[in-house]
Write a structure and sequence with these properties.
The chain has 464 residues and is of the alpha/beta class. The protein is built from 14 helices and 22 strands. Helix 1 packs parallel to helix 4, helix 3 runs antiparallel to helix 4 and helix 3 runs parallel beside helix 6. It binds flavin-adenine dinucleotide and 1,4-dihydronicotinamide adenine dinucleotide.
């Protein structure tokens, strides 16, 4: 006899584990299937958390090692890198958080079914030979790295993001294929630890999808730190011999090939949804042309009783998008109203400075024929940033020219990832740029730059 649940969630990433906990909080009988040894999905195990642990640690090392603290009266000498300790500390952070999800499952009485799930019907699955049924099944299987044809990932010399989180030594030369979020974050980690980093990007600029001013400024600032960019360039092959990679590149538009020698290569050209082995055909769930599961307003797939959330569905592949969808789908399953505003999902690149964005870019709005007013304020005019000698970047507020409603906020700055929450909240409440400009901001804080950028929408910033 198959064991019966109200809800079975497949995948325990930020989408799945949050959906499972929320559904259980609503009093439903819930199981969550996860094939990894630990809960938390890509994000906690090999994504957001370990990458941020290394970004934090490598930044501490770079500040201690490069002498930049001396002007503050902090003189260092004999600074040494203990990579083993740095990697152990990262693992400790991961363990603390993944164990935390196991604790939350117990606390909320969510049953963890360990193993791989596959559908056997519209309301039934198999996990390791055991049968389970549920009134509702939520697919939250996430995503994996997109392979590059002709480039074999061996996790030694040629790595994906998971391999790049655990390199046993600092490479002399790291070639990063793809100038997106993973390439710039993990490229920054190894550059700070001493590697020469060359980013090969197919398009003419890094960070596709972000605002044009952000893309330009980030390229300039990362170049200043020593990162090399080969834009409008494609990789045609990687050959590994004796621990060294020969990366063949040529102009994206065609032209003479050349070879880059590297002792590590990171493939980071995007991620694709995980649906292999789910036997979706047994349930009647179909994929779109991009291999994603399309869903309607209530996250329901084309099959009644089967839902999908997170990276396996269209939209930005971000942990907080998956989490919010997890809460919302569980609310719907409990007969309540779930809510996610897909127009207001912030995105952050955790380099130094950080880049953060919410809403539309100026180019998107112009392409849609929307008349806009733009206010920009540089951190060079912000007293706290000046005091901290931390003046790289700017805040850009884009408002509708007719109504003044804020349509997008884009920030480059050391605290951009934290500051963007305020912008997202303002947009969620339908704020105008004047609303932000009239909100009292504490002094001296970096956040005052957002207020000044909002004032700049009417051409009346004070400190420039
Ligand atoms: P996942 O987290 O991918 O979880 C899906 C889970 O389902 C996995 O654990 C998988 O093992 C399991 N699974 C799959 N198929 C089955 C099956 N058949 N049976 C049982 N279990 C199954 N996002 C951010 O917002 N901020 C960041 O800073 C950030 N940093 C990142 C850094 C890196 C290096 C990477 C790779 C990603 C990063 N992301 C970040 C993206 C983020 O990790 C994902 O958007 C997020 O994890 C998606 O959540 P999810 O629940 O949809 O899927
Ligand atoms: P990405 O989509 O951010 O960037 C991939 C880059 O590779 C793009 O610039 C693209 O033009 C380029 N590219 C594609 N094919 C190429 C080729 N053949 N040669 C050279 N360049 C090529 O994907 P990435 O960096 O792999 O990250 C995947 C996803 O993970 C992100 O989209 C994001 O959603 C998530 N993520 C989020 C983070 C965050 O929120 N801070 C951190 C890391 C990942």
């Amino acid at each position: 006899m198959a064991e019966e649940f109200d809800v079975i969630v497949i995948g325990a990433g930020p989408g799945g584990y949050v959906a499972a906990i929320r559904a259980a909080q609503h009093g439903l009988k819930v199981a969550c299937v996860e094939s990894r040894e630990t809960l938390g999905g890509t994000c906690l195990n090999v994504g957001c958390i370990p990458s941020k642990a290394l970004l934090h640690a490598s930044e501490l090392y770079a500040h201690a090692a490069d002498g930049s603290l001396a002007k503050f009266g902090v003189e260092t000498s004999g600074v040494k890198l203990n990579l083993g300790a740095m990697l152990d500390e990262k693992l400790a952070a991961v363990k603390g958080l993944t164990d935390g999800i196991a604790f939350l499952f117990k606390k909320n009485k969510v049953t963890w079914l360990k193993g791989r799930a596959r559908f056997t019907g519209k309301s039934s699955i198999d996990v390791g030979g055991a049968a389970y049924t549920a009134k509702s099944i939520v697919i939250a299987t996430g995503s994996s790295v997109t392979p590059l044809p002709g480039v074999e990932i061996d996790q030694k010399v040629v790595v994906d993001s998971t391999g790049a989180l655990s390199l046993p030594k600092v490479p002399k030369h790291l070639v990063v294929i793809g100038g997106g979020v993973i390439g710039l974050e993990l490229g920054s980690v190894w550059m700070r630890l001493g590697a020469k980093v060359t980013v090969v990007e197919y398009l003419d600029q890094i960070l596709p999808g972000m605002d044009g001013d952000v893309r330009k400024d980030m390229a300039r600032l990362l170049k200043k730190q020593g990162m090399e960019f080969r834009t409008s360039t494609k990789v045609t092959g990687v050959k590994v011999a004796k621990g060294t990679a020969a990366v063949t590149v040529e102009p994206a538009a065609g032209g003479a090939a050349e070879t880059l020698e590297a002792d590590a290569v990171l493939v980071s050209i995007g991620r694709r949804p995980n649906t292999d082995g789910l036997d979706l055909d047994k349930a009647g769930v179909v994929l779109n042309a991009r291999g994603q599961i399309e869903v309607g307003h209530k996250f329901e797939t084309g099959v009644a009783g089967i839902y999908a959330i997170g990276d396996v569905t269209p939209g930005p592949m971000l942990a907080h998008k998956a989490e919010d969808e997890g809460v919302a789908v569980a609310d719907f399953l409990a007969g309540r109203v779930g809510y996610v505003n897909h127009d207001v999902i912030p995105a952050v690149v955790y380099t130094m400075p950080e880049a953060a964005s919410v809403g539309k870019t100026e180019d998107e709005l112009k392409a849609a024929g929307v008349e806009v007013k733009v206010g920009k304020f540089p951190f060079a005019g912000n007293s706290r940033a000046k005091t901290n000698r931390d003046t790289d970047g700017f805040v850009k507020v884009i408002a509708d020219a007719a109504t003044d409603r804020v349509l997008g906020v884009h920030i480059v700055g050391s605290l951009a990832g934290t500051m963007i929450a305020q912008a997202a909240q303002a947009m969620e409440f339908g704020a105008s740029s004047e609303d932000i400009a009239l909100t009292c901001h504490a002094h001296p804080t970096h956040s005052e730059a957002l207020k000044e950028a909002a004032m700049a929408v009417e051409g009346k910033a004070i400190h420039v």
